[in-house]
Every structure is written in C-alpha cells, then in structure tokens.
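Researcher: First entry.
Model:
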Amino acid sequence: MTVDLLTLSIALSLASVLQCAALIGLALANRGRAGLVWWAAGMGVLAFGLLITTLRDVAEVPLVWHAVSNTLVGGGMLLLYHGVERFFGDRGHLSRLLLIWLLILIANLLLAFTGDTPPLRRILFSVVIALCSVLSGLRFWRASRPDMDSIGLFLAIVFFANGVFFALRGIASATDVNWLVVSPSWQTATYLFSIATTTLWTFGLILLVNRELVIEQREALQQLEQVFAAQPDAVLLSRLTDGAFVKVNHGFTRISGYTAEEALGKDGVTLHIWHSPEDRRKWAELIWRDGYCAGVEFQFRRRNGELRTCLLSSQMVMIRGVPHAISIVHDITERKQIEEALRRSDARYRLIAENTTDVICLLDTQTVRFTFFSPSVEKLIGYSAAEALQLSLSDVLTPESAQQVQSALRYMLHHWDGDLVTAPPWIAEIDVVHRDGHVVHAEIITSFVRDEQDRLVVLGVARDIAARKQAEIELRLARQQAEAANRAKSAFLANMSHELRTPLHAVLGFAQLLSRDDTLTTTQREYLEIINRSGEHLLKLINEVLDLAKIEAGRYVYNAAPLDVRQLVVDLQVLFRPQTEAKQLQFTATCAAEIPSVIVSDEAKVRQILINLLGNAIKFTEHGMVQLRVELESAKRVLFIVEDTGVGISPLEQSQLFRPFFQGQHTVQNATATGVGLGLSISYELARLIGGDLTVYSEGIGHGARFTLALPLRTPTTSPLTLPEKSSAPRVVRLKVDQPLYRMLVADDQPASALLLITLLHRLGFVVQSVADGQAALDVWRSWQPHMVWLDMRMPRIDGLTVARQIRDICAQDPGLHRPVVIALSAHVFGDTLSQIREAGCDDFIAKPFREHDVVQLIERYLHVQFEYAETATPAIPAITEQGYHPEWCQALSQAAGEANIRRLQALVAQIETDRPEDAHQLRQWIETFDYQAVIHWLETITTSQSTSHTV
C-alpha cells in the first residue's frame, strides 16, 4: 500500500493537534507545575504551523503563507525549549527566544518577498528545528545525569534524534543536484519522522510529569510521616465505625504509657484512656454532627492510672470510603498547674492588697498619675480606690508633702546613677489630705519596679502613723520617767549600800578579831562561826544586788588578763570539796588535755560565774554527783560545764531561768534553798559581758541539769599577756622590832567602824588617833602630822573627799608639810565612787566591810614596812632513801592529793625529779589532769611493794 505525501501531512497535523490537546490537559491538571503551559503553547503553535503547511500542500497559496508556517513551526520549537527550561527550574530567557523568533520571521519574510528560493527556505527551516531539538535534548541530558533518569534520557535521545534528522535534511537540501526540487523520499521521511518524534516526546513529557507527581507524593507522604512521628502531641488515626486505632505516633505512646503495638487495633474504651464516659460521648457527638471538634478538654487516663488534663482536636476523613478520625491530644497538665498556681498567687495578692491596713499604690513615672490603689486607701483618705485614681499628687498631699515627693521623684529619675530598680527604698513621713479636709500623718516607703509592660513605675506603701507618733511621745515620756526612776534607784542603792555595809563592817570585823582569841570555848567559836556565816551571806546578797544594778547601768567593765585554767579548777575543787563531802556527793573537776594552760579572759568574772553555778548545783543536789568539766569545743571556744544529778529544771522554766528574781517552782517549795533569784541572772549578764554565753539544759524535774559557760578562746599567742604570780597571804602578827614608829589617823563618824580599825592598827604596832568628823581630821593632821590617814567618805561638818582635797592643796602650797598617804574608806561602792576618790587626791580606796589582809596590804604598799608573820613554812621532808620513797614523803603526798593542793603536790614531785624522772613525769600528768585518785593508788602500790620487800 502506498501513502501519498498529502496524507502524511494531514496525519502529522492531526497528530500535532492531538498532542497539543494532551499537553493542554496535562497543564490544566497540574497548574502549579512550571513549564507545562509553555509545552502546551509550544505544541499548539507547532500544530498551527503544520496545519498551514498542510493547507499549502492542498491548494496554491501565496509565498507569505510559506513564511508564516515555517515561522510558527520554529516558534513552537522555541516555546517547547522554554517549557523544558522552566520545568527544570531554570529561569529561562523568554526575551532572547522572542528575539530569535523575530529574526526567523524576518528571514522567512525576506525569502518570501525577494523571490522564491525553496532550498534556502528548507535549509532555514531544518536549521531552526535542529537547533531547538538539540538544545532541548541537552537540557534533558543534564537533568538525567545525576541518577541516570530513564525518562529524561529517553526524551534527550528523542530530541537529539530529531535534531540530527533535520540537520541531515538541511545538508541534503544544500548538496542535492536538483536542489530546487524536494526529493519525495526526504519529504516522506520528514513527515514520518516528525509524527514519530512529536508523539514520542509528548508521551515522554507526560511520563516525566507523572513520575514527578509520584516522587512528590512519596516525598509528601514521607514528610507527613515525619511530621506525624515528630509531633510532640499525641496524634492518632482511628476508625469511626468501631473506634479502633489505626495509627499512633510516639507522642501518644509517651502520654498514654502504651506501646504502639499495644494500642493498634484497640479502641479508647478498651485501653481505658477515657476517664469520663461523658467526655467520650460528647466527642463522638461533635464528630458525627460537625465532622470535627477543636480544643475539647478532657481527663486522659494513663496506663498507670495517672490522670492528665488534655485538649482533644479531631477531624473526620474518609479513607477508602470508611470514615476515620485523625485526632491530636495536647497535654495541658503543666499549664493547668501553672494556671492554678497563678490563680492562687493572684488570689493571695488580692487577699493581701484588699485586706492589708497599709495602702499599696502604683505611680506612673511618665504621667505622674496613680495607676493602682488598694482598697485600704478609703480608710486613709476617705476616697474609694476608683475615686483615688482620678486624683493627682497635689490632690492627695499637702503642698509641702507634694513638693517633697515630686523633688525626690525628679532627683531619682534624672540624677540617680544606676538602675533605679536596684536603688534603695525611699522612706519619708508625709501629710495626706483626707476627704473631709483634716490632715493625716503617714509614712511612705517607695521603690522603683517594672510593671507587666516593662514600664518603670513607683511602688508605694503608705500607713497611718498618728497612733505611732502618739506612742513615740508616750514612750519618750516613759523613758524620761524611767531614767528618773533609775536615777532614784541608783541613789537608793547607794544609800542602802552604805547603810547596810557600815554595820556589817563592824559585825564581820569584830568577829574576825574575836576569832584570834585563843581563850574562846568551842561553843563560843561555833557562835562566832554562825555570826561570820550570816554576815558573809548578807554581804553576798548586798553585792549581788549591787552587781545587778551595775550591769543594768552598763558600769561593769571587761578586764582581760591571763587566766590559769587548771589553777582555777583546782581552786574551785578545793573551795567546794568540804560542801560536797558534807552532803556525801561525788565531786569531780577535770580539764581536757588540749586546753591551753593559760587563756585570756576576766578571771574574776569567770570565777564568780563558776562559783555561782557550782554553789547552785551542790545546793539542789541531794544524791549523786556534781561535775565540773573544761572542754575545747573547737579552735574558737572553751566550754566550762557544770553538771549535776539534782532536782532538775522544768522545760517551761528554762527559758525564764536567767531573768532577775526568778525562782523556779522547786526552789520556792524547797525550804532549805536560800537566795533572791539574782545569781543566775548576774552570771548570765557577766557571761555576755566577757564575750561568752551561758546556757542551760535539763530533761526535766528529777533529771539533773547542765549549765554550759562558753568563752571565746584567746591565748597569749594572740594577746601578749603574762600570768601574774600567785602569792599566799599568811597571818600577820605585828611589826618587826626594828621598824620606825608610824602614826595612823582614823577619821570615821561610826564608832564601831572606827574602833575596829583602831584595834587592828594597835595590835599591829602602830600609834593611832581617832576623830569623828572632817574638821577634826584636818586639825589633828596639821598638828600631829600622821604618816597615813584613813578617811571615811561620809562624815559630819566636812566629808572625806573635801578633807582629802584640802590636804592635797595645803601640801602643794607648803612643801614643808609632810604629805600623808590618804586611804579612803566607804561602804558606798556604787556608781563613780572610785573616780571621785582618785580625783580628790586619795592614794587608794578600801570598801567596807574589809578584812585584815586588805589593810595589811595597803600599809605594806605605801609605807614599805615589814611585818612578822605566823609560821607557815613546811619543814623539808626527805623524799628518797636507800629503801625507796620515804614514808613521810608518801604521807605528805597522800595528804596533798586528798586536799587537791596542787602547789604542794608540785613541790613534792619536784623533790624526786632528779632521782626518779619517770615517776615524776607520770605524777605530773595525773596532777595536771586532776586525777588525784591515780596518785593515791600509785602511793598505795609503792607502799605495799616497799613493805613487802623489807619483810624478813
């Protein structure tokens, strides 16, 4: 069968039209994809050009239609190439292609109007198609190279083949012998090849687009899966027909506690994730009715039973005709907790702001207007909070206070260096104008803060201080009255001290003199001892009252000095051993080895505190033990612990124990307990005065008590002080026979006090005269010129201070007069007595009641006399013999250990230091740790071994 050229031409045109329709449909179906519209347009232009070519073959047409058909075919190829570029994301050069198309049009028109030259027209036509085909083939080739895409490679081959064919056709037209006539074979081949290539590239373009669609769908599905899996909320797909879960993400497994395998195929009812069936019913109703639901709050039950508050959003979707629901579950438990905390915080804030008696306000620093008032403002100025917000500073404050506040605000805003939020609060007293016109005195405390919009505002808190002002006035008056009462108390104590100590001075002094009498009977000595004990007790009570008054007045002074801790313990042990033995109590005093031998403190006050504590412990302990321990708490504190097994202290009373005049219930009920309740109060204040602390602990009545005196540890390493030497005070008998004759003048208006001192001085061997008033003292001093004058401070006519001043002034004016040593005597020991005495010119002071030793010390210090003392020397005892330790040395060591006489013990141990250094070292260790029982046990062992070795 033969086919003529016209039929092939018509077939080519129809094929081009059909391909154009296919590409138009492809472009319409994929409007968002670049390049498809240009493919459809290019194929349409190409088909139009081929239709004109077919008409040209059917009928005779002007040459211009030849130019038009060739130009349209060339333009269609250019549009196809541009579509390829756009499809692959290239920017494309439409303007250049348009320019080329115009050049093609011009060339064809020139050929048409300058004379028909078919070979040139055919060559131009072939070259245009060949170039466009090659360019399109190259673009498809580049696109297929990375992964050797088969469709892209196929299209590249089709376009390359089309380009090669038309290139050969152009060459053939130029080299043909009869080049003016087209060979029928070439014409046939052209139609057939064109039908094939256009069909192939149209089919290839459709495949390429479908392939891209598949890739995009696959990528979209992968992205959807990634989003589905990465979603932190629970995402699940369920069938609405039976509620079964088809797909769940990791968020669901995290929130629910179920694995994906456990959840798939089951519904929410089976997994018990619905806490309330009503919540599930409501959700199902919304889905079936509206097809969706958004933000439905419900209680989600986890696998472990924990309830979580969640928001559920669902959308109905159809999958293969089956209704499904895709749901997102968002856990808002933490948010609900935060909201609840914020609600409670806001409620607390409102509770405080609305119920506080102080007024809370906020002032905008830009507008200088109030932005908030608490409801309590109505009580302060008579306006409600809403009404007060309409007021300005000048409406609320008096002119003076408004100016004060505005000046402070301007200064802080314009001159403060630094962040105002960290600036210290401004506190001031201001006058606020009440609604009814009266002025209210208020105190304002302000600071800068930032509000919820980060604006700088002033936060102010104001309170009515009228009552406080009145209280301050009353307090000032009360303070003045208290100071007046304190001065009256001081005067009363001074007078009472003098009036009580003066007769007590005579009682104790004459009792001391009587005790020197060797002719007293035993009964008389017992009576005398009762007088001494009673007098000492009365003196102790007087001193305690005066000590408390001194502490309250701040007149006690801390005198730092070296303190031998171990010697203090020994002294206390010796002092209290007779009392504990009388009550058959076990009394131990120990000092830890790490305690420094010397510390720095006020020895008198420490001794006074410990004597008081030990005295109380012995007083309130009938059975058991009393213990004094010295321990090192740390490198900073020394603890003096007094512990007993006595009556104990109620926990309710321990907090009040150190209050003045407080006596516990057991003290009140105990008829043998004496005192007025000042000892512990004074001890507590003294402990604080010297930088320490005094505490008490007791489990209760019947469990004893433990008092702990804690002192700061200071040693001579940090305070270069030396320990003063201790000296004994033996009894004075009389002046030595070779001493000069000294004259003594006693001036005292109290006969008993004067007689006591006169008797003592006469017994010591001095010449004594006595006067009863100050004028007489001056007269006798002028005429008799005594070496020492004993002046009582209170005397008729002229007091003792005036006498001392006059003696000092007269001696300064008349160097020929002998200036005596003036010793002031007084029972007044309160206040600044000592400084007044020094200022008056007295050399020293002695307080009544005094002891013989005090008088003797002053005479030795100022007159440098020598006295005869009673024999107190201990005869030397041999320590070591050929048979061992001497029995007398052993007996002396045993007696010293029993008496806890540390000095005697050290002296006896020193005697064996050379011959028996090991025994001496061991004995010293026991003595320093107060282990006297170990010393006595060692002596028993030595005595037994020596007597055994001498047994025949």
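Researcher: Second entry.
Model:
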Amino acid sequence: MTQATTKHDLPTLDQLTGGVFTAATSGERAQRVRDWLAGNPSPELMQEVFKELSGRDKGAARALRERLDEIKRAKGQEVIAAEWAEKARSLLDQPRLNIADAMAWQRDAAKAGAPLSREPLAGLKANLAERVKGVEDLQHRAQVHREAAVLLAQRFEVLSTKGWQDAQAAEEGLRADVAHWTTQADEITQDPNWASLDARFALQLDASRSQLQVVSEAFHSALAQAVAAAADAQAPLPPVPVWADELRAARGLPPENAPAPAAPPAPKVDPAQRAAAESAVEASLTKLEEATAQGQGKSSQAAANALRAVLKEHGKLVGNALEARVHAALVAAGELEGWQRWGADKVREELVAKAEGLLNRPEGQALGGRKMQEQLRALREQWKQADQGGVPNHGLWRRFDEACNKAHKVVEAWLEKVRAEAAEHRAQRLALIEELRAWTTEHASDADLKARNRALHQFSDRWRDGGHVSEKVFAELQPLWSAAMNEARGPLEASQKASIERRQQMIAEATELGAAPQLRIDAVKALQQRWQAEAQAVPLERRQEQKLWDAFRKPIDDAFQRKSAERERQTEAMGEHDRAVLEASKALEAANATGDAQKIRAAMTALEDALRGRREAAAPAGTAPAAAAPAGDTQAADAGSADATVAPTDVSTQDGGAEGGETSAPAPAPAPKAAPRPVVAVRGDDRPGAARPAAAPAGRFGDRRDARDGRGGPRAGDRNGDRFGRDRPGRPGDMRGDRPPREDRGPRLGDTAFRAQRDAMEHAQAALRKLASQAHGEAVTQLLDAWSKRDAAAVPPAQELGRVSPSVRNQWVQSLSSAPSGEPAEALLRLEMAAEVPTPPEQLDARRALQLKLLTKRNEPGPAETWAQDAARVLASAHEPTTARRLQSALKPLLRKG
C-alpha cells in the first residue's frame, strides 16, 4: 500500500525503521521507534514516519513527536541566539558602554529564552561581564585616587603646623608622591574604559588634580621663603603662621599674637538686671531639659540653639550654679543629638545598601520596571523620615541619590516601553471600534441571532484583551466603544425582549398545565418543544435564561412530583411483594459483585421465584368461599385491576346469598376454581436489545374464542349474542359468555421494584457474559500453550472452547500429537477471512489472491465452513510467535460465534 502524499511507500518505511509498522503490539512498536531514533535519522524521514504512524498508534508516535518538537525548539533557539548575539556584539563594539544596557541585555535575553549557557552567547556574556567589571573597577580606582589627593593635601596641611625644618625634611617625599599621583591619574584617564564612565568622575578627578597642584605649589613656595628668611634676617617671613613665629623667635622678636595686658576688673552688676537675665536663661533651660528628657532630637536641638542665643545676651549676668546647669543641659543635648545622628546614619547606610543592591541582584532575579519604581519610592520615603529625626548627612545622601538614579534608568526604560505599548493598544482599540461599526453595517439584516451574539461576544473579548491604556485614554475610548456596541446589539436586544415576552407566556401556560387536575403529557411535551425552539432561536444572557427556565420548569416538575407521590402512595399500599422483589434484587447485585457465576445464577433463580410469587399469591384468594366474592370484587374494582364487569344478575344473586348468610340460611357450597386464563401481556422492558419474555402457549392473537370449555357450556357467540360475545340489544347474555373469569394476577410492581429487578437482571447477564468471555480467553490461551509445547493433553475440553464439537477437538489433539508438518500460510488466511479480522500488511497480496482463487471455486466450502479443519492444519505446523498471534486473533471471534 503506497501513500500518494509521501516520498516512500509503507513497506519501505517499515524497512527503514526496523519493522515499526509490522510490530504486533504497541509496546514492541514503541521500542522499535526508540531504537530507530537512536541512529539519528534525518528530520524529513522522521516527519514522514510520524505522519504515517500517528494515525495508527499515537502512543508509539509520541517519541517521534517529542524528537521533532526538540528539533523545532533547537532551530528556534538558534534564531534567537543569533539575534541576541548580534545585539551583544553591537554593545561590545561601542566605545562607551552603558552598564545598565549590558545588564538589560542579559535579563532580556533570558526572558526571550535565548540559550545563554551555549556558544556563542556564553562567550559574549562573559565578555560583557568582563567589560562591565572593568568599568566598575575603573570607577573604583577613580574614587580611590580622588581620596588619595585629599590625603596628600592633608599631609601638606599637617606639615604647615610643624616646624619649617620638619617640612623641609619631608619635602622631597611629598614631591615624589605628588608626581606618582599625577602619573596614576594619567593612567586612569588613558584606560580604554574611561569613556564608559560617568562624566562626573572626570570632573572630580580634574578638580582633585588642580587642587593638589595649587596646594603643592603654595607649600613649596612658602617653604622656600622660610629657608631664605632663616638665612637672611632681612628677608620677608613666610605666610605660614607657625613658621613665621619660629623665625621671629630665632631673630629675637616677640610673637605676632602676644597676649594683651590684663583688663581692669568688671564693675558690679545691678541685682534687678541679674534676676531678669537669670529668669530668661532659666526659661530656655527648662525647655531644653524637657526636650532632652523626652528624647526629641529635633526639639532639643532647637531649644539648645535658643539657649545659646540667650547666653550670648545674658551670659555675663548668670551665676555659677545656673551656668553649671546650662553647661550640663547643653552637654546632654549634644549627646542626644549625637546618638540620634548616629542612629539616623545607621538607617541611612542601610538605605544606601538597599539602593545599591537594586541593580546588583542575582541572575534571573532582576526587578521589573513597576517593582523597581515601587522600591525607589519606598526608599526615598524612608530617607525623608530619617532626615526628619536628625542632622542631614550629605555624603550618604549623594551615594543614595546616585544609586537611586542608576536604578531609575530601569524605570525609565520600562515607562518608555509602557508608553509605546499604550500607544499601540490605543491604535488597536480604535481599529477594533471601526471594525465593529463595519461589521454592524454589513450584518444589519442577518437573521441568525446566535451567530450574531457569538460574534458580539468575540468582539467584547477582543476589547477586554486589548491591552492596558491610561485612564485618560480609556475614558476617551470607552464612550466610542459603548456607542458602537449598543448599535450592534440593537437588533439582538429587540429580539431578546420579544423572546422574553413569549417565554413569559409559555411560563403562564406551564403554570396552567401544572395546576390542572389531570396532567396532559402531550401538551407538556409540545410546550417543552416550543420552549427549546425559542431557546435555540434567540440566545439570552445565561443567568436570565436559567432563571426563566427554572420558572418554566417548576410548575411542571411540581405536577410530576404530585403524580410520583400519588404513585408512591399506591405502591406503599401494596409494598409487601415489592419488598420481596427489592431484597432479591439486592441479593443479585451482591452476587454480581462477587464475580462467582454459580452465585449469580442462584440469585437470578431467587429473583425469578420472587417475581413468580406475585401470581402464586393470588391462588389462595381464588379458593375462598363464594360469600367473600362481593368484597373481593369491590376491592379489585377500586384498585383498577379487574378486566371485566360482573353481570347484574350475578351481583344480585351473590348479594342475596350474602344477605341469606346473615340470616340463618347456610352459605352455598363454593364452586370449583376454573382453569386459569393464560397471561397474554405483562409489563416488560421495551428498550432496544432487551430480552423479550416468552409468549404464552395459549391465548395468542388469532385463537378461537368460541371454543367450549370443559364443562360443555354453549358457545360464546350463540344466538343470544354476536360472534364477539357481546350482548345484542334487547337480548340477555353475558359479555364473556360461559368463559371462566380471568385469573387474578396480584398487585402490580412499583416503579422502584421494577427498575431494581430489571437493572439487577441486566447486570447479572453482563457479569455472566464477562465471566464467559474471560473463561473463553483463558481456553484459547491454553490451546496456544499446548501448541507451543506440542502437548495434546493440555488442550482444554470442548465445553470450555465454546463452539467446538468433540470431533473437532479430537482432530486438534491428533494434530498436536504428530510431528510438525505443513505450511500454515493458506490456512491462516482462510481463518482470518472466516473471522473477518485484519491481515498483516505483508500478507494482503496473498489474501487477495486467495479470495480470487475462492471465487473460481464456487462449489467448494468456504472458509466459514472449514475453519475447524484450517485450525487443525495450523496446529499441525511448527509453532511461531507471529503465527500464534494471528491464530489467536482469528480463533477468538470464531469460538465466540454460534
């Protein structure tokens, strides 16, 4: 068999794949597929084999589908890898590398699914990381070099406070250090990554260079002037105060800042003025002590400043005791301010670490734009709170602000992306509104409301999934969308309104039908069909439609419940027999669960006996005295189980007898019970495929009704009646003639008992069929085992084989008893034709040839008639696994037939 749409036919594919298509079982086929895939076949051949195999065995084709999906993913990853490799190379080729762009490349590549662990992306990732590390190291070197310039300037300042001889001794070392610093600064500026640094680093380094040069030149010039002044007494003194004082002392001159002569004693202070000054200082001191006791750093700082201002004005008039209190309070306020400043600095340092850590997160854990924005807002808010409780720290603030600005670049990129997406989403929504208007105009006259509603739902879903836009844009677009949607839903809403009115009318009709004393099933069915037609024609909102359906169904359900309750009341009145049938049904279900065929058959017999007990219970009632007949007839008539009425003359006679019984007259002797009338119709299962009860041998349709009974009475259709036994007008006669009364068949089974016994019987029959099938399968397996071992004694009995006679079994035993001989090919083909089972693909040509051969020999028996002899020929041949599987698949349906 060839495939018109493939390059290879099926036998060729089977040969290339190592027998995948001719494997007997799905497990073997899957193993052959895995073995074939281990040889790495071409993708085109795998695609061709998958196309043929997926329609035959999806389980075996799963490995092929996974390999093809893997190849497809690999090709996709190659395209993605090439794209991101090009972006990485462009970043590396730039003279100025932005660290944020390099980190964003790695993050975005990971999100896009690029294989970062494989070449070339792995090498490019390492190069970018090395380049970023070089930039960061250069930043660190620039900062350290700036601090080194500050330290050198401090050394110059410290030497200016010592003697000029010490400065002269350290001058050469300072010159060398300054020259070395200048050389290192030139190396930093000539680094290839210097262009990638922020511009502020260059400005800071230049400022440090110029400041260091100014300080160095001033120091060296002052030192040279000091050396000249030491050698020549007429030379000017250096501008450094310490060196100038030292040279004055060497020349024998007084120092420039000599102490002034002692001042005259201060005059006495007015007591009233002193009291006013002390009261003012006391008020400020009290406020400071209260603020210090409460631990309010900001308030204590303001109070301390106010106290110092008061002291400047009235400090000279304050006594020693109050002055000591003031100094103690100022010291306590200073300590409090120091502790708060220390605590605030700790908090600020933590905030700086958090801000710097926003970008230095592990791989794959980088924050997105929105999350980064929220983190930055929270950090800045915490910094404001820290500044409120202490003195600001400008150094930490600069570090914090720089880290936040770096992290905010991620937010800026995200905001730019969000703005671009919002513009795109706005354009898409405007296009969707125009599409909805065009669709409304095009489908204005469509009568298919369900298709219209479905299309509108699809438009709504597309609008809902249209992407995020700002509140301002949404407020602009929403009225346009609502107007277009209202215009499109106009015809549908009008039809829905009319449909709701019609459904309300049907609900009213259902209420009237449910309230009627006699439930009309035909009217209910017609009304339900109208409702279903209306529901299919006009769709409504699901909740509203369910509410209307519940209102429509409720009165009809209530009527059926009343009918069921009435039926249950009737069932309870005659429930003794039903309980017996229910118990027998439960016993049969329990036997079905055991899986024991003997128990199941015994339970089925018990259930049949319980069902027959309904007619047996009526026998004692028929042998009762004739005096009890009127009461029985009355009860039967009330129950609705009587099939005919009793003649008035008989009723009067029986009534008379009953009245005589009440007097002293003796009761007449009971008449012998007539032969029971055969059952013509009983309640049964009318479903398709259900077992039909056997028809009674007598009383069938067409039997003569004018036959004489055993008592020799006249015919039913005599001269006093017509041929159907009815009384002619004006002539006496009984409707049934002289026929015996119908047998009382007892109470009718209730619905629960009837369904229980029916379901139990069906389950029992299914269980027996299942057990028989299992036994049959085991028998076939035993037969094949006997063939493989050539053991004639292991052949199962004919009863277990099913449709096999003892003679056929003997023939099979003889085949197994002899040595293997013959070819089973033709016999196997005949068996497969008789069983109507498929033949392996490689034997299809032989089967067609055999069919043509059999067509030419019409008088010879066909395969269906000689399958037993064909099976004997196969058993007489040598055992092979492939032949055994074909024989098993053919014998199973053949032994099951008949």
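Model: Note on the second entry: The chain is about 70% helix and 0% strand.
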